[in-house]
Amino acid sequence: MKDKFSEELVQLAEKDLLMREKLLAINKLSDGYHPEMEKLHKENAQRLKEIIKEIGFPTISKVGEKASDAAWLIVQHSIAEPEFMKSSYKLMLENSADVNLKHLAFLFDRIQFFQGKPQKFGTQLNSDGTIYPVINKNEINGLRKKNHLPELTQEKIDSILPIESIEFIENQNADYIIWRKKVGWKK
């Protein structure tokens, strides 16, 4: 039997995706973190925190796969709340047998990306669409396979910039640096 929060989690994620589509349609998604999107992400994160207090992380066995995936989406998009993202990752890791492994990979990489650290699975992209630097290019496809992600072509792997380029990538957008400091990703 599904948990009482299943439907609500799916609805929260759907609101998020609808807002994204709306902002994309009026070309307002690529100019930094849109205030409407940020507000919705914070509201969704707050509600998910309340649900987590009551039932723990909404795993597949607790709420069903669709609602567990929705909970991950809410966490993945709560970029203005670093501590919530990190604590949710830990909860998902503790319950790794009961969550979608590809979501764990995406969340790990997203946290690394916002901290300005190399990712593991190659799920996060630079603003130019290339893959953000990874810890180990030679292990990337093995890690992706273990976490149910499609393998990358050798051409894609070869195009990943080295870890040393992170500082250069990070310093290309002053507003982004200011925002990350403001919300707590950077000191």
From TrEMBL:
Source superkingdom: Bacteria
Pfam families for this protein: DUF6624
Protein name: DUF6624 domain-containing protein
